[in-house]
Amino acid sequence: MKRAVKGKAIPEARTRDVKQDFSKDQLAAIGAVALAFNDLQADMEALLQVVVRMPGPLFLQICSRIHGLDGKIAIINTVIDDAIIAKKEQDELKSTVGIFADFKINRDAIIHARIWNAALGIGWNSERRAQEFEVLLEANALNIFYDHIVWLQKAFSLIGNLLGSVLSLNALALGDQNRPSFEEEIRDRWAQFQAHRSRRRSLKPMPKFPTEDELLAAENQRLANEIAAQPDSYQPWLIPRVHQTYFQRNPSIYMMMRPQMSSALMDSISRQPAQSNPPPEDEKNEGANS
To answer: 19-27: long-range contacts at Cβ-Cβ below 8 A with a sequence spacing of 24 or more?
Structure first.
């Protein structure tokens, strides 16, 4: 949901009034992502408490002194390696836990972003060593990310239940009469985790940053809507603001926008010649001299 700025950045287009630049849906989605991730972080720390098997008051003292979230994830993965025998099951659990780190990168980019191009839903922020990033803040993308956060919350809860049962079983003697009940419980909880893991496929894929053509199409759509809202007599004078060459190269975009345009606007676009490179300086000079 973010990309490093390489070369020319997206043009800045904003009023600096957040409530005017972004819709209520966008602002609500940003707040939902921020709050849901806070719950996700609490769920991750609850999972950590399960695997280290510490009482609440002592755990809070120790957890607050572990440096960074990466250290907490590393402890969880170490316990998974120690408690789970099968390599395939270890990898499935650790890959699910590892999603947290990717989500944190996205969450951090979103909550630290400034609005940059309001019409395109693009934010901007800078990180270490002055590295600049563009951030996707479009409402639909934010809501998809939110759905994935909620999915991971449930996954952490199921992993905690599973590992709690596994650790309890591993603490029993081989001949303990309670082992069969724990083994059955582990099978049930593993099945619940697998079923939930497969449900992620039903979610929309995590959003990716738009391509340059997609951004240009969105900007042209915005400009065309703005032009179409003007009186017919003014529209041809505003055409230079729209990239005619892009329309000619992408007729499907032109056809998609056509119903929103007046006849004067459509005629002007269709008559507009494709932009070409300017003549060399010597040719211009020859023409002037003649």
So the answer is: 21/115, 21/118, 22/115, 22/118, 22/121, 22/137, 23/139, 25/139, 26/121, 26/137, 26/138, 26/139, 26/142
